[in-house]
Amino acid sequence: MADITELEVFDQEDTQKEKYLTFALSNELYGIEIKHVTEIIGIQQIVELPELPNYFRGIINLRGKIVPVMDVRLRFNKEFRDYNDRTCVIVIDIGGVSMGLIVDSVSEVLTIPSSEIVPPPDVAKGGNRYINGIGKVGNEVKLLLNCDKLLYDEDADRMMSIL
């Protein structure tokens, strides 16, 4: 029995390898490893919490589970944009911690082979800390996010300690 379970886990990991959920912020296209994504939901009522950075919008109640939400646009120091019917929350799980990422719109799941991923340019100290790599897909590029860095820093740790 244990062998079958191990094979199922291996098959699941293998089918998720090199797969990215792509989404948009303005005209920029981003990707996040599909293995981190638990679900995609529409924007819903957010309860604000005091004394947090502006990119932490607050918390949502997702079927009885409290999930903090971060506006990725604000996290990247972009201008706030009103939420609309295309705005989505990508619920991710990193090391057992759930977080909602508010994005302008979700595009599709793409396979981006590692041979088509290059490291981000080192333009400024810490300037690309949220980007794991740049995926080349046809004539487009997708900025591939590093979820760990997106979630774990001083501010995110403070957010998690409140919950």
Explain briefly what this protein structure is.
The protein has 163 residues and is α+β, with helices and mostly antiparallel strands. The protein has helices at 2-16, 72-75, 147-151, 154-162, and strands spanning 19-25, 28-33, 37-42, 56-62, 65-71, 88-94, 97-103, 105-111, 117-118, 131-137, 140-145.
Based on CA atoms alone, the radius of gyration comes out at 16 Å
Mean pLDDT: 84
In CATH, the architecture is: Beta Barrel
Low-confidence stretches: 1-5
Architecture overview:
The chain is of the alpha+beta class and 163 residues long. It has a single domain (17-162), classed as OB fold (Dihydrolipoamide Acetyltransferase, E2P), CATH 2.40.50.180. 20% of the residues lie in helices and 42% in strands. It has four helices and eleven strands. It has helices spanning 2-16, 72-75, 147-151, 154-162; strands spanning 19-25, 28-33, 37-42, 56-62, 65-71, 88-94, 97-103, 105-111, 117-118, 131-137, 140-145. The strands form two sheets. Strands 8-1-2-11-10-9 form a six-stranded mixed sheet, with no helix packed on it. A five-stranded mixed sheet has the order 3-6-7-5-4. A hairpin with a 2-residue loop joins strand 10 (131-137) and strand 11 (140-145). It is globular and about 45 Å long. Residues 1-5 have low confidence and may be disordered.
